[in-house]
Design goal:
Helix content: 25-40%
CATH topology of the largest domain: Transferase(Phosphotransferase), domain 1
Strand content: 5-15%
Family: Belongs to the protein kinase superfamily.
Subcellular location: Membrane
Number of helices: 10
Shape: globular
Strand order of the largest sheet: 1-5-6-4-3-2
CATH class of the largest domain: Mainly Alpha
Number of domains: 2
CATH superfamily of the largest domain: Transferase(Phosphotransferase) domain 1
Number of strands: 10
Protein name: Protein kinase domain-containing protein
Radius of gyration: 21 Å
Keywords: ATP-binding, Glycoprotein, Kinase, Membrane, Nucleotide-binding, Serine/threonine-protein kinase, Signal, Transferase, Transmembrane, Transmembrane helix
Binding site for ATP: 73
Distance between the termini: 37 Å
Length: 351
Amino acid sequence: MAFYECYSSSKIERENQARVEKFLEDYRDRRPTRYTYADIKKITNQFQEILGEGAYGIVYKGTLSNEIHVAVKILNDSEGNGEEFINEVAAMGKIHHVNVVRLVGFCADGVRRALVFEYLPNQSLDKLIFPSSFKDNITLTWKKLHDIAMGIAKGLEYLHQGCDQQILHFDIKPQNILLDHNLNPKISDFGLAKLCSKEKSVVTMTEARGTMGYIAPEVLSSNFGKASHKSDVYSFGMMLLEMVGGRKNFDAKADTSQMNFPEWIHQRLNQGEELKIRIEEDDDVIIVRKLAVIGLWCIQWNATDRPSIKIVTQMLEGDVSNLTVPSPFTTRNTTHVGPSTQELTVISELE
C-alpha cells in the first residue's frame, strides 16, 4: 500500500510537471525570460529581502545584472497542478499596458516555480488608503485618488477589451494594485484570472474565486447569475468605495443588522447630503461625490445593472453633474448572503 501511494504521488507530480513544461514549450517563442532556480537565488541574493507574503507564495526583492530592481514571487503551490503558475504566465505574457504590472520572467525548474515582475517602490494601494497602514507619511489627495481610480479602470478596460483574448481578473482589491514611484497604479496578481473569447458574455465557474468582501454575487453562487466581465466591475466598485471611505466596506464579524458603508453612502447621497470626508479643498467635494456615485453603480446586485468598465472610465472622465445616484439601489452584504462561505474556495483579506 505504501509503495502504491508513493508511486501514485510520484506519477501525479510527473504529470503536473509535464503539463507545465508543455505549456512553456508552446510559450517558448514569446517573452518574458525563463530563469533557472539558481538564477532566482542569485537575483534575490539568496532570498534576503521579503517584500510581502500571500496565499500563493512569498515575494522577494531582487536585482538583475543591469541593476534593475525586480519583485520575485516564489510560488508555494509546487505540489499543485500548476494552474496558478500557468494562469499568471499566460495572462501577463500577453499584456503590455501602463496600468498592468509587467512580467519580466519566470522560473519552472522541476517543482520550483517563480515569477519575476517589475519592482514598484510604493507597494500596494491598501498601504495608503487604510489609516492603520499608512507608510512613509504618504498622503493621497482626492485628485490623486481620482487619477489612481482612472488608471485602474483603464487597466481593467484593456484586460477586458484590449487583448486578443478577454482577461477576467477575479481578484481586484487594494492589495493587488501596486503603485510606482509617481503613485501610478498597476494591476497585479493574475493567479485567479480566466482567459476567454471576447465573444463570450459569461464564463463557467466550477468554484468561487476571489477575496471575501470584493466577490460579486454571481461568482459566489450561480444562483445569482453567470460570472462575466461585470464581476470585475463589482470588485472595482467595492475597492472604489474603500478609497472614498479610507476603511473596509464590511466587517465579517459585524452584526448583520449593522448598516454597511455602501448603504450609508447611498442613504446620504439619496437624501441630497454631501459626503464630508477628509475635505480640504473646494474641488474635493466634487471628486468624493463622483467616486462614491460610480462605486455605487458598480456594486449593483444584478450584473445587468452595472456599467461595463468602458462606461466606468467614461464616467470618471465626465462631469459629476451628469451622474445620478442609482435608484433603486440593489445590493446586499455578500459576506452574509448566499451559500455558506465554508463551502467556497475563497481567499481571506489578509492573503
